[in-house]
Specification:
Elements: H1 20-30, E1 36-37, H2 52-61, H3 75-87, E2 98-102, H4 103-115, E3 121-126, H5 130-138, E4 142-149, E5 155-156, H6 158-163, E6 169-175, H7 187-200, E7 203-207, E8 231-237, E9 249-256, H8 262-274, H9 280-291, H10 296-300, H11 305-318, E10 323-324, E11 333-334, E12 337-338, H12 348-359, E13 361-362, E14 364-365, E15 377-380, H13 385-405
Parallel strand pairs: 1-13, 3-4, 3-6, 6-7, 7-8
Antiparallel strand pairs: 2-9, 4-5, 8-9, 10-12, 11-15, 14-15
Helix pairs in contact: 1-12, 2-9, 3-9, 4-5, 4-8, 11-13
Cofactor: pyridoxal 5'-phosphate
Family: Belongs to the class-I pyridoxal-phosphate-dependent aminotransferase family.
Protein name: alanine transaminase
Length: about 400
């Protein structure tokens, strides 16, 4: 029979966070092995529970969650998002500028589907959260990766960004706080990005899903709060700040220069209507989450579990010979560098696969985040202290063996 092939729109789409190594880990688990999974920021499986009041409000409102909602979402949670944008000093946002989605991920794809024609270009950071690159490609566009500079704390290289803008460029993606590096961008960098968008009439798409997961007293500036003459699409949700990944409750806010974007906004409205609505139970969690006690502050502040585990993971990793890592200021991840002289890695996907097979530790290779060289990997620092110590010890043992096998011991 004639083979049934996947769409060629998927040829340039990849999502290595759930790639071949994960499939191998599932096989190993079925064979009875215990895998330490450091590949995904799924907080619940590591004992980070959502606030009780969110859970209770969802339960109490479940009887009203069976019907479709407005295609953009229920009024009360959108109102809560509107108030949140005001607290972030984003001006001019109305209820109609807010779209609720099945997580920010659905809205990322929606924003790209509504914007791009074949051949349009979008500037995406390298490294990036790979859904952004995938969404651009799936929408017929060409992702163009601008470099974030590790030597400068993983801040975007503005000159590299400027060089890569062409007549086909439609938008700039800004992931701040950044996944996978944990970088938090200062206002000066954000203003430079805005100036580029202003000069070239580009849209800024801002992924701010980790805007409360901040360490060492750091503060987050929402880029959409810094100008009103550029069109901003800001995305956020409950997954990380409120440990509610499975609730799939996210939002997208359109702000700034909206007068010349009417046709694009009509497209977003059309796409929102086509999916009927976001899931209603998740919508019921939003108002309570945004208006309630912000327990994330206890986790990231002095003595907090996330802060302790960040510090522990950073020390354990950087104590390994040939491993360096910019200490994250935000988010849930480390993106350590392996000295290419000590670790001559040609294929980092194979490297991650071998680490899994030998030490039963699952990480994601750096090129899975569209990084330019096979010399990084990403891990989450969510496991409890004992498991995190065990995992980093296994990584150290694997790297010691790798050095010896390659004559670098």
């Amino acid at each position: 029979m004639r083979p049934i092939l996947k769409s060629n729109k998927l040829d340039d789409v990849c999502y290595e966070i759930r790639g071949p190594a994960l499939e191998k880990s599932k096989q190993m688990e079925e064979e009875g092995h215990k895998i330490i999974k450091l590949n995904i920021g799924n907080l619940a499986v590591f004992g980070f529970d959502p606030p009780d009041e969110i859970v209770q409000d969802m339960i109490l409102n479940m009887h009203g969650a069976a019907g479709y909602t407005d295609s953009k979402g229920m009024f009360a949670p959108r109102k809560a998002v509107m108030h949140y944008t005001q607290s972030k000093h984003i001006s001019g946002v109305t209820i109609e500028d807010i779209y609720l989605g099945n997580g920010a991920s659905e809205l990322i794809v929606m924003a790209m589907n509504g914007l791009l024609n074949n051949g349009d270009e979008v500037l995406v950071p390298a490294p990036d959260y790979p859904l952004w690159t995938a969404a651009v490609s799936l929408s017929g566009g060409n992702p163009v990766h601008y470099i974030c500079d590790e030597q400068a704390g993983w801040f975007p290289d503005i000159d590299d960004m400027r060089r890569k803008i062409t007549s086909n460029t439609k938008a700039i993606v800004v992931i701040n706080p950044n996944n996978p590096t944990g970088a938090l961008y200062p206002r000066e960098i954000l203003l430079e990005i805005i100036e580029l968008a202003r000069q070239h009439q580009l849209i800024i798409l801002a992924d701010e899903i980790y805007d409360k997961v901040l360490y060492d007293g750091e503060q987050h500036d929402s880029i959409a709060a810094l100008a009103d003459d550029v069109l901003f699409i800001t995305l956020n949700g409950l997954s990380k700040n409120y440990r509610s990944c499975g609730y799939r409750a996210g939002w997208m806010v359109v702000s700034g220069e909206k007068r010349h974007a009417k046709d694009y906004i009509d497209g977003l409205n059309m796409l929102a209507s086509m999916r009927l609505c976001a899931n209603a139970p998740g919508q019921f969690a939003i108002q309570t989450a945004l208006g309630g006690y912000q327990s994330i502050n206890d986790l990231v502040g002095p003595g907090g579990r996330l802060l302790r585990q960040r510090d522990m993971a950073h020390k354990l990793l950087t104590d390994i010979p040939g491993v360096t890592c910019v200490k994250p200021k935000a988010a849930l991840y480390m993106f350590p560098r392996l000295d290419p002289v000590m670790y001559p890695i040609a294929d980092d996907q194979q490297f991650a696969y071998d680490l899994l097979a030998e030490e039963k530790v699952l990480v994601v290779q750096g090129t899975g985040f569209n990084w330019i060289a096979p010399d990084h990997f990403r891990l989450v620092f969510l496991p409890n202290s004992d498991d995190l110590t065990d995992a980093c010890g296994r990584i150290a043992r694997f790297l010691d063996g790798y050095r010896r096998r390659h004559g670098r011991g």
